[in-house]
Write a structure and sequence with these properties.
Elements lengths: L3 H19 L5 H27 L1
Helix pairs in contact: 1-2
GO molecular function: protein dimerization activity
Organism: Paenibacillus thiaminolyticus (Bacillus thiaminolyticus)
Pfam families: SpoOE-like (PF09388)
């Protein structure tokens, strides 16, 4: 099972590739990947914040 950090890194690579291929940030695929990446980043930040609160 991939960690959330692994998923973020994978999606970052996909996003860079998609922008390079499509040539624009508004392409449907680019937007979809960006939204997925955003959701994982928010999840990671939430987990990190919860850990800090629990300490």
């Amino acid at each position: 099972m991939k960690s959330i950090e692994d998923k973020i890194n994978e999606l970052r690579k996909k996003l860079v590739e998609a922008v390079g291929t499509k040539g624009k940030f508004t392409d449907e695929e680019v937007v979809r990947i960006s939204q997925q990446l955003d959701s994982y980043i928010v999840e990671l930040q939430s987990r990190q914040a919860a850990k800090r609160r629990d300490q």
